[in-house]
């Protein structure tokens, strides 16, 4: 429909810019070459003298003529002409003479024919004479002999390629005759002669433009503008090309530039306005309505100014109409007051003012179209424009009232267009779109298709029509057809999506289809449809739906459904306040838009509102809404639930219960799912308000059919789990029958385990069984891990880490604790975590902890995924501290840990006064303190520990802070403070055995005796209290006491303590080893073989008990056996010892022992033994190499060498 | 002869005023000025103070043409959607509504006796004649096409009829087309007579001299006013002076002067004897869509209406 407008524009352009060829050739005429070097008087006299001498010399006559010609009076011109005539007579070959003659005849003696002949003569002599050529052409032009002009130029250009003037003139003329391609050639040639002539470039641009070579045209115009920045024509034309190529921004730039030069230029103004319109349409198509509207406002202003400049240009009015129409369609409604404060009056008035703006714009569009039509009533497309704008005007009008039998204006005007151009299928489609009679619609669309069968729009509208008439099959076919012809058309996609209710495509497919429609064209109808489909297919939280519904609300704020859907979308995004605000608006809209809406719609919206209010925590308002509904008798089951729930939350328990009592009445009429919800709510309310017993009683009273649902089963089971006497057993077991999915089943097992975990063992046992059935259930695994970890006997932590070995990346499991927490905590709980590398330690733990350093890596992964998660960081720090401790605090790990702790402590969550937070902070401070201690920084250590001790926590935790302070002061030898802290520890007490054991060690090392031996007493008290593994702890205490005795060189007492320890925990290889070693020492001191056999027994037990071969045991055993005289056993044990050491850690003594062994076996036969791989000397050398300070080795070596 | 401004009303209508005519005086009242506008209303004004007499609404689109019956009792108004409403001037009762396909009602004119209403039929390339007693279509005077119309011929709009005029004796109807030709018909035989050539742009208004049945004036977008011998097919005068399209034209009751309104925002008074503009009124600020002389017998009056929403009344002497 732009066609006519463009046509008109061309007319304007031609008017504005009279043909380029004219007025261009006013070049400054170069005057004759013979410039007077002397004073003209002298020269004249000189020439006259020489002429008298040689009257037959034509060049003298010519020079004289030129001299006279340049004088400024008519008489001398006459005289000059005489000279020229004479010169011409004498020499026929001088073109310049003829040119001057031509000038004379044309300008002074008014004798054009003779002038023509002279010029032609001159040109035939010298075709490159531009002065002459231009003069000739001007002469011809004045006489209107354009064809002659062309032939003169052609002659000249044929004769000499250097006759650039001719090419230029020819180019202009050809452009004037609209022979574009020929013109291009001439102009290109001319440009070689005059490369800086802006006129030529501009004309070349025009020729290219008309030939449809747009890029070339833009370049040529650009060159012209470069040469002369004030070329309005070039600017406007290149702007038009840019618009045609849909690069509106560039076009707008050109037009603005043109307007700076010539602000009154109609075509530049027109171009600017249409450029802005195009740009705005682009934005609107993206859904940026506000942006588009601002552009349109500017465009409308420009267009309005243009109509003042050129009031009788139909195309300008049409453009203004187009702009206003687009504005009316896109002007977005803006929520001025955000949130719930918006009142109904404010909302309605804002809707009315929005509507008024749109309506006014539509009216203005229609007025402008009417003006355009009055100016050019024969332009058919304007009728359609009026029809479309009328349609829009009526859609905004308050009460559209017209007689159904009469022709309605939109329809009628569409017909007007058709009357003028019957064969235009677009008009048929427009009629089909605008008509309100289905038969006419169908007829018009089919006529359109007759004219062009591949008319996707017509097919799409036909489909829409059939859908309305409920002929699904035909509708589908039509939409299919349209979609296959033009997949970039939005309507068929939307149409296909709307057919979803027919049940054909799945909800997802419909959603996808509708989404595509919305992406192609952001139309409010499609967007609302999309949101509706999202409700059905569960895509409500997707961002596309969010964007779509936001735009829909901007465009159809008067439509309650859009606000309602917006509320649903907000709710799906968990923004309940915004959701409530939207629902409120929806209800204002419903109450405003008269009685046509049903009560059920109001009810639905109100219930939505109440629900989001209660979800947002605004129970008071939610209750208010429910009460309002109740007054009108519209409160249904869901409403009742919200009502009861909100009442309960408000603390009006009795009211809530009385409301809840109404549920069962409504349950029978409800759908399955909502019935379940309401029963669950009753149970929950009963439990929370009236307590366990009353809840159980009520449940027992309710009919059993109500519990036939998986969800209710959960609630009932949960209540049952809390009940010790299992009164609900029958209900529970019957309801469990309805659990179907594995997920539900595993969830139920989780619940059962929780219930029975009031007794720990049974819970674990149940979970183990359940895990057999559902090995993939992360929920069950996590719970099992958690239970195992929290078991009072710290026996199962290694199992805990093992049972939740699943990947920690699975966030979907919502149990009590997440996988990574269990993993991290389990790993910390296992003392011997980390390395398979026995470089640092030889674990004697019989439980083989298998996950090892994996925990640290998993925690790092978690931390990388959630850098804000402070509990992961905390666990990581603890694990790393374990690792550092095990590796004897290497410098690098210490530094890293210090930094980690510093970061963790700066986390603001530790400023909260919360027990678990305080505990974590306490732990972190202790870690920091420990690290400082290990790095030898006693001050920091003491500071951190003091900080930790000032945190408000139970005494038995604070004990450890003071213990650490003890150690800190001890390490710097501050005995008085050590004593002080020691006393403080004794005061605080702890129920942790290890605390007392540590205290005992400190006590013994620093001689901090007290009269009552308090630490031992306390430890025993602690043993009495705790139920877990008293033997183990007693054994450890005995070990410590034994070690203390060893330090005091009191080996007999030590042996006694250690023997006691061994009897208490015979399976501990460490204890056995210690006992064995002590016995061996005693045997050495007392030379008592009885001790030797005791040693052998303990060492053998130690070897049997250890999971991996421990060093020293075999060496000691060899010693003992050797002392008893068994050489073979000595050898075997020594060999065994060799293999228990990792290669890089073998001590010098081992090599030395091997030398002994080698010396023995050199006599022997078997050479396959280890010791035989090298000579005894070599063994000694290796021993010396490892420990060169030992004199004994050197002596042996000397002896061997000697 | 000269014009003197009497009264001017700004914002007489809410939108551009597009057309005006005088309703002759009846026994009970004096002559009235009838104007039609883009704001979809028709207004009746009492001279000389231009007091609003009545406002008629009911059109769905802008009013493009109004015509008054010679008796002064009733008048017709037509809007862009081609509804013609015939109404009683005094009571505003609707006498009849004539419906035509859109694009087929432009200038309207009652014949001097008042028995026939001629309507310029726009896209139908014809003039439609309606009987004013029965309000039925009595004849369609079609412009013959140069060659047989082809179905794909999109040039049918070339003959788009914009204007119509009755000769003072009521025997001839002339109509002007978009391509600049004027066609003359014999009403009695319902026959096309001949074309009058000369304009090359749309002819917006036609008017016969009330004193001379041969003399036809035409106003065209080519900025010229032509004077034809409508019977003898000859152009007897061309008057230039307007800087832009001549949109409207009327001949004074004595036939000595014509007035024109133009896109150049001026109203000009032309002396037919001198064939030259004698006066230019520049009081309008936008293009002038209508000029109309007061009916014979009354005081010499000229009214002009314009896109600037105003109506101006002049004394013509």
Architecture overview:
- Chain A: This is Tetratricopeptide repeat protein SKI3.
- Chain A: Pfam families: TPR_16.
- The complex is a heterodimer of chains A (1202) and B (317).
- By secondary structure, chain A is mainly alpha-helical.
- Among the domains of chain A are: 178-262, Tetratricopeptide repeat domain (Serine Threonine Protein Phosphatase 5, Tetratricopeptide repeat, Alpha Horseshoe), CATH 1.25.40; 741-888, Serine Threonine Protein Phosphatase 5, Tetratricopeptide repeat (Alpha Horseshoe), CATH 1.25.40.
- Helix content of chain A is 73%, strand content 0%.
- Chain A has 61 helices and no strands.
- In chain A, helix 17 packs antiparallel against helix 18 (344-375).
- The longest helix of chain A has 32 residues, at 344-375.
- Chain A starts with a helix and ends with a helix.
- The relative contact order of chain A is 0.02.
- Chain B has no helices and 28 strands.
- With 317 residues, chain B is mainly beta.
- Chain B starts with a strand and ends with a strand.
- Chain B has a 4-stranded antiparallel sheet with strand order 1-28-27-26, with no helix packed on it. A 4-stranded antiparallel sheet of chain B has the order 2-3-4-5, with no helix packed on it. Chain B has a 4-stranded antiparallel sheet with strand order 6-7-8-9, with no helix packed on it.
- Chain B is globular.
- Chain B has a single domain (3-143, 157-316), classed as 7 Propeller (Methylamine Dehydrogenase, Chain H), CATH 2.130.10.10.
- The A-B interface holds A 308, 311-312, 366-367, 370-371, 373-374, 377-380, 383, 386, 390, 407, 409, 412-413, 415-417, 419-423 and B 15-16, 18, 38, 60-62, 64, 80-82, 99, 101-104, 106, 122-124, 151-152, 154, 156-158, 160, 162, 178, 202, 221, 244-245, 247, 263, 286-287, 289, 307.
